[in-house]
Amino acid sequence: IRCWSNIPFITMPLSRAHGKSFAHRSELKHAKRIVVKLGSAVVTRGDECGLALGRLASIVEQVSMLQNQGREMMIVTSGAVAFGKQRLRHEILLSQSVRQALHSGQSQLKDMAIPVLEARACAAAGQSGLMALYEAMFTQYSICAAQILVTNLDFHDEQKRRNLNGTLHELLRMNIVPIINTNDAVVPPPEPNSDLQGVNVISVKDNDSLAARLAVEMKTDLLIVLSDVEGLFDSPPGSDDAKLIDIFYPGDQQSVTFGTKSRVGMGGMEAKVKAALWALQGGTSVVIANGTHPKISGHVITDIVEGKKVGTFFSEVKPAGPTVEQQGEMARAGGRTLAALQPEQRAEIIYRLADLLTDQREEILLANKKDLEEAENKGRLALPLLKRLSLSTSKLNSLAIGLRQIAASSQDSVGRVIRRTRIAKDLDLEQVTVPIGVLLVIFESRPDCLPQVCKEGSLHCWEFFDDKRQGISVAHSNQILHHLTQEALSIHGVKDAVQLVNTREEVEDLCRLDKLIDLIIPRGSSQLVRNIQKAAKGIPVMGHSEGICHVYVDTDASVEKVTRIIRDSKCEYPAACNALETLLIHRDLLRTPLFDQIIDMLRVEQVKIHAGPKFASYLTFSPSEVKSLRTEYGDLECCIEVVDSVQEAVEHIHKYGSSHTDVIITENEKTAEFFLQHVDSACVFWNASTRFSDGYRFGLGAEVGISTSRIHARGPVGIEGLLTTKWLLRGDNHVVSDFSEHGSMKYLHESLPLPQRNTN
Length: 760
Known about the structure:
It is a single chain. By secondary structure, this protein is α/β, with parallel strands linked by helices. It has three domains: 25-93 and 116-186 and 202-314, Acetylglutamate kinase-like (Carbamate kinase, 3-Layer(aba) Sandwich); 324-416 and 434-535, 3-Layer(aba) Sandwich (Aldehyde Dehydrogenase, Chain A, domain 1); 550-694, Aldehyde Dehydrogenase, Chain A, domain 2 (3-Layer(aba) Sandwich), CATH 3.40.309.10. 36% of the residues lie in helices and 17% in strands. The strands form six sheets. It has an eight-stranded mixed sheet with strand order 5-6-4-3-7-9-10-8, with helices on both faces. The protein has a six-stranded parallel sheet with strand order 18-19-17-16-20-21. Strands 24-12-11-25 form a four-stranded antiparallel sheet, with no helix packed on it. A hairpin with a 2-residue loop joins β11 and β12 (427-435). α6 (207-217) runs parallel beside α7 and α18 (559-571) packs parallel to α19. The longest helix has 25 residues, at 80-104. 43% of the residues are buried. Mean pLDDT is 82; it is low at 1-18, 191-202, 262-267 and 455-470. Keywords: Amino-acid biosynthesis, ATP-binding, Kinase, Mitochondrion, Multifunctional enzyme, NADP, Nucleotide-binding, Oxidoreductase, Proline biosynthesis, Transferase. Its EC number is 1.2.1.41, 2.7.2.11. This is Delta-1-pyrroline-5-carboxylate synthase.
């Protein structure tokens, strides 16, 4: 016997052989047999008289979907009392109306008092109607449902228990959904703490305990308890600082303060937790979630089964390390301490990291070699992906140089005064730079990203790998780089400012922590960026979904420059987001020696050419026609299209581009300036490769991403793009009333000189 909340209950029911619940949410997709418990607040309307038909229909649809996937679904439902109350009220009103009409000779309804309806009578009147409603809804999905009414006494008689068990198994075998409810028409009033009355199993006092009892009796894999709250909170929902508990472990009960029960129903959250823990110890996994919220009720059950972070998951296995919420809190606290360091201290940390990248080069390359070997064992890797996964001595040297650039400029980053204003006498205002806060940097098989984003300010680093990359991870590289980063931070006691996670589930969880994460920066494919933008809940995402970069070759282009710039833009690193994807050529250059040189160079470099619609129309035998002019190839492929003028080139870029980087090659300054001024992209170049669109090449030190948005940072993002500002006002007993019409003070609003910047 175990004891919890002063109520003992056995750790395993007598009828159940020892089972093992799922340890993690991601395993819930393997659940075969599932019980869905619908609380009274989920099934009934807000007036507690009648059913919430829309919610009920949505739940039936989800249960039907899972049933048709081959799972065995059971429903423990409330609602008979509410449905019966609606029917009886209608009958009483109708009866009173008739009697009053006969008595008074008129059909006016006056002061009709509806008597208090007894719950058992309501249940008796509502059970048949509730079941008829379920049958009608399940019939729409070609699924048969069957009703089973039980009481607590049915579980004390061994023969009745066996009969119930056999009935349920037979229904499941025939692909029928059992709908179970307590027989409230005959059930006795609940006895408080009846588990203490010598009963060695959990008593059926409400539908929570009924669902737990059935789940364990039937050796169910998963019990989903739907209520009118998001899950289990550490204090009553709605109270100050109430926090939703993502995962609840046996033994954590003392950390929870329970409130009152819901507006309807027999049990409250305490009853649900007790039932959940009892089911968990019997080998059934449990999730308590909200079944009433209009935004999630339409997919809450399927989301839970898919392993998404919904409600509170009960698990017997505690994780070895901190949860993502705890990591976020550590990064927040460490980041604030880091931001408060002196510039010399931040510079010392960054210099130390640069030295570690150089000193520990062999260990880093060895770890990266392990990642490459594991990746190659999963299949042949494309060259662009291999280059992205690989670290080299030159890459590490470049990272170290970039970090030293940041360290050297640390005096002029965090805490830099950018505006000073004298508001009034002895009242001075300053605007100073500060870190944005905690950054969630998600990078896809790019190990060099981790040290790139280590700057003077608060940041939070993560790795994410995508199925489209064959599940390829750079875990070994990330681990050693993360270790070195924390070693550098530890010299001033702020190593927790940088955290690392490695799974999709953790990334999805992080995208919901809008109270802990200030900005998300995805680094990877366009699909990754789109997925993160979709997953982010109230957190701004800085980045670009696609890198569709153009090079326009004008009629006045230099022969010597054209092939060099196009080769570098496309072939130097074709997987980069700043690589050329569409080559625009002026119509007058077709069938000229310059055009032939371009084609020959692309063939030598083994670039696959796709013809745009206009280009294809000029050719008798054209390359494969492009499927879309809005394509990011990310490989040795590109599209060639023909335009009639620089104006048409600009229009094409605006229609099909992604506002990333676009280039004109011409010797005509007037044409070039027209292009530079009219192309509305983050980076617009004249006679230069698209590959220059990079924070390191711009002299920004390290680059954490490229943004095509129009708010905050745009283009390659370095230190400046990761800073925001705050206002500091220094006064001496100043109050606003002194500046009123008859006050003693006047506003000056004088601009003051800025402090001398360190230019060394």
